[in-house]
């Protein structure tokens, strides 16, 4: 049977292990002895990670991001994690996934230890089987009948179950770890082992020797002999081993481990019992916060509850071990919960002794929500006044802003590519343009919030209105573009939205001063907290999980950033575009005078922009004509590297480098040129390889141009105009939060209008639906009423 496990390869582990587990757990005739496995090599093909793993023990990690440096880790598996819902038997698939994660970390060079429950549940399953088998045999002998009567199973004593289950549980772990070429060793302890100095030294020496040999110690309380826990029996400064929570904490401190991961059946520590109204998951828990937490009942199985876990966690933290309490049972996360924690992702509750200087991101989200609601209640003139004041501050504080930006530029020199450095740079002209754009926003925002879009008389004295309202709280994530901050801030203010800003660390100094100026402007009407700059070590992926606080995510940056955010966002809509693959089609009837200007401006004016030209489509009839030669000469002068598309390359004896992909955003002085036979072929090419951002036709034939404008399915489609016009400021929107290529809500450059949604207001006088029934006294009118005219000044 063991050879069957070895030959099974790396198919899904719970599938290949299940037949073996069933035969092992329920058969007395088959046992796996540790001696049959100890010859296995303890290394696998998983590559080592490159982060340094050694550190001086004595102080716990201050931030989640530091957990990736943990060398020695204890993983505690609670009873609810190990056992099935019926408490009889083990959750095999879940256990297999946990073993796989532990094995991955072990083979990265870490020292892993398990503290596991499950012996009682495993033993209960085996004893129930034996009792049923014994009763059925006796009943068959006495009754002489084939049909068995209903059999009652006596209450099974926990110690007996533990004694019957320990060997099977360990055999299961050994078989699982063997699949990853890792040895495991079992250690059973009791509270007395920690009170006896000699036994403590022996235990410590055994564990160190096992870790030195790259063996995973699997530790459990010896429930077959352990006495009942005595309440309030902790020694001075020492935690008693009452359950596996206290055992894991005691073991972690004794072994000077870097990290203790406690897996339970809840997401972590809540400020009130999970499932109760307003219960919130605590991201980071600090010593002394116990008074703010109300503990509920303990787990459905096991000795301890959340209060016991918190006590054990705080004791371990005091001993220099970092602690995370997380959910090990949820099917969507249990397959990667341990590795996610070690990677520093926001999973469960992290225990830390270092309180951050400022508010947490959750607190910032709540402040943005509250401040945004206050902002939305201001008069339009007051919101405009805030934006005008911010525009003035951008010019009045120009020297301070440029000095901060200079620090960012100096620190980024040599680390950022030239296009990103250009985006990072601020100048006097940029600040002046920003101020002009902000004043445009202020002037156009007078009736943005609360504008009536539709009025309907439902019935007599029952009138319905649809009005514009803010979306709520926006999260804007931007890279290398500090000028984005005041633009987005002004649009959020004008639309009455709360705002969370997450800028790149390369623009730290610039973003800090620009945010302070935004808050200074907001302070004139007491809504300073409506805009928050996230300065904590929050990963973008973690921010994208705050679906209770954020209503819309707007990424501003590289296509990779946008794709990562779209992938990471859980339940939060993302507005943006992943790529800016903009096309320009040069028709056979294009003007010689216009084409070179349009191509130069679209490609060379700012090649790093998302609205820069990336693919030039040339009508076949223009090849080897003066117009074509002018285009090539201009690109050569501008030092644009040309990549030939397949059809273009076929026309040339010596062609430029053939393009690797027709779906490429270069973001630099590089351009793909391809040949098409007609306007329809150009449209088909754009639909196949474009990104629905901005596409242009250059022609003097109005009919051809209109055909292109109507048939190209992109956010922006132009005729005889540069792709660079695809911009909120140039559209007269004042500024933009980004360009959206999605088909829902907003599309193209997204300005003020794209940050609004609507709500319905119904005003009646004691109206009830039953009055409109077949025999009711009222009838629906559904009359359209005039809408107040919008102020366009």
UniProtKB/TrEMBL annotation:
Name of the protein this chain belongs to: Delta-1-pyrroline-5-carboxylate synthase
Keyword set includes Amino-acid biosynthesis: yes
Q: Where is the Aldehyde dehydrogenase domain?
A: 361-623
Which terms does the record give in the GO molecular function aspect? Answer: ATP binding; glutamate 5-kinase activity; glutamate-5-semialdehyde dehydrogenase activity
Stored InterPro entries:
AceGlu_kinase-like_sf (IPR036393), Ald_DH/histidinol_DH (IPR016161), Ald_DH_C (IPR016163), Ald_DH_N (IPR016162), Aldehyde_DH_dom (IPR015590), Asp/Glu/Uridylate_kinase (IPR001048), G-glutamylP_reductase_CS (IPR020593), G5K_ProBA (IPR041744)
- Family in the record: In the N-terminal section; belongs to the glutamate 5-kinase family. In the C-terminal section; belongs to the gamma-glutamyl phosphate reductase family.
Q: Gene3D superfamilies from the entry?
A: Acetylglutamate kinase-like, Aldehyde Dehydrogenase, Chain A, domain 1, Aldehyde Dehydrogenase, Chain A, domain 2
Name the PROSITE patterns for this protein.
GLUTAMATE_5_KINASE, PROA
Going by the UniProt record, its keywords in alphabetical order are: Amino-acid biosynthesis, ATP-binding, Kinase, Multifunctional enzyme, NADP, Nucleotide-binding, Oxidoreductase, Proline biosynthesis, Transferase
Any Pfam family hit: Aldedh
Query: GO terms for biological process?
Result: L-proline biosynthetic process
Question: Which EC numbers characterise this protein's activity in its record?
Answer: 2.7.2.11, 1.2.1.41
Taxonomic source organism: Vulpes vulpes
Tell me the lineage of the source organism: Eukaryota, Metazoa, Chordata, Craniata, Vertebrata
